[in-house]
Every structure is written in C-alpha cells, then in structure tokens.
Model the fold of this input.
Amino acid sequence: MPAIAKKKPTIALQRTRHPLPETQRVEVVRALAPLQTGSIELYLQLKNAHWNVRGNAFGSLHRIFDETSQELSEIVDNLAERMAIVGGEPLATIQKLTAVPQLADAPTGMRAQEEFIKLVVDRLSYYIQLVRDSIDVFERYNDRVTADACVRACSALEKKLWMIESHSVSKA
Ligand SMILES: [Fe+2]
Done:
C-alpha cells in the first residue's frame, strides 16, 4: 500500500503589504508556532524554578531563574510580533498553546537546587536547539529579519544557560 503523505495544516494569513511572497510567509508562520509555544512553556518552567528552588544557593538561583524568565518574556513578545508582522496569528490562548506542547512537563513543588538546575538546563538547552534549527528555515524562506530575532534570542539564552550551569560542579 502506498504511504499516505501527511498534509500540512493550511494557514490563512491576514492581508498585508509585507514584501515577502505569501508562500514564504506561510512557512515562516509555520516555523514560528513551535518557538512561540516553547518560549511560553519555558517561561513558566523558569518561574516554577524561581518560586520553588531550595538550597544554599537559593539567592543566586532565585535571581538567575527570574532573569531568564524575563529574557523569555521578551522573546515571547518578539516571536509573537514577528508572527503578526508577516500576517500570521500569534498563539494567544491556553488551548492553542497546549495543543502542541514542545517541552517535557516539569514537576511542581519545592525541590533541591541540583534537581532544578538539571531540569532547567535540560529544557533550556533543548529550546535553544529548537531556535537554532529554525534559523536555517527562516533564511531558506528569505526572512533574514526573523532569523536575526532568533540569533538574538539564542545569544541571550545561551548566556543564561552558561550562568545556570555554572552553579553546578557536576559534569554534564
Ligand atoms: Fe519573583
């Protein structure tokens, strides 16, 4: 039996005078959706770590987890605005965001700092890879501006990853 090709869901764009051809903007919107979902999931997981971390490095981790969540809040906003700028509809409801989760869920409640460091580093690293991979996609569809927003997001998040990892002496 021949394999049935999976059809990509169609995306309807708003009318805009944006200079990129519609066929390319559709692909930009398609690639932006998982990044937007992932950034919101990660924002919340960083807040979870900020609120619930316990240990002798509490002050420093409490602060760096919050700074990382603030960074993500800016990234969420930038990605959603790129989506709107090219004619797409930013994901703005819990139902739409949870339809296709990008990250492994995180346990809630108070936890030791080593556990939270590992948890955050795993997910942050995964998300950075997701953003890095999509840079090529945006360039392929001629959207250097969105690619540039992703480069800036990676630059900020990779620095946070380094700072959070540096709280742990254990080898990766
Ligand atoms: Fe706070």
